[in-house]
Amino acid sequence: MDMICFEDVTFAYEKENMVLDHLSFSIKEGEQVGLIGANGAGKSTLMKAMLGLISYEGHIYVDGQEVKPQNYAAVRKTLGYVLQDSDNQMFMPTVFEDMIFGPVNYGMSREEAEKRVEETLARMGLLHLKNRHNYKLSGGEKRMAAIATILAMEPKGMLMDEPSTALDPRNRRRLIEVLNELPVTKLIATHDLDLVLETCDRVLLLDDGKIVADGAAGEILRDKELLERHNLELPFCLAGVRIK
After folding, report:
1. I need a surface site. Which of 14, 31, 98, 188 has the fewest CB within 10 A?
2. In degrees to the nearest 10, what's the CA dihedral of 77, 81, 85, 89?
3. Which is higher by pLDDT, 135 or 52?
4. For the residues 169-186, what does the mean pLDDT come to?
């Protein structure tokens, strides 16, 4: 079954500035997909369209439901969205209050929500952040806490916009481990091609609002000529980079 389906989706801020150009593709339930492309390719816009955050032409379906106003609540419950800027996502005073907000507002009892928050923080090695005030978190801590906030809602699918930004090597490794453990559909938009190689089976390469490549992650991310043609470079682990 398709979890996400785009049918001839078009979006432009202005007529001459096409951001999504007649996109058609689908992502099956349980797939792990990396969305890659240079700055301005349309990655973040594509994710916003999926949640009904922008008006577009064409049709988008999430878990069988078309993305339109009467279905927005159901779609947004189905797809957890990790924003590129954690400051736009963490809006309650503490990490705990942020994490419990979503589950409780979706009808879960407070007792059950508190249990889920504890389990999620433990899985991510973040129990020490539970009662920390958000304004006292480092950039990396806030990033991990923002991801934990979405995981606590246990969505059927996750949209992640640059999830490894600001993470130190230890937290980045933990993030990869958590992503690989999650049995949900994932679409990860990122410039971190090494992360995509370690977490995704499939890659969509977006350039100038169009999907110019769609295939196995191992094949696309090893295609130096293809990547360079679209202003990207090989993942570090494949480029023979040596750090002295």
Report:
1. 14
2. 20
3. 52
4. 89
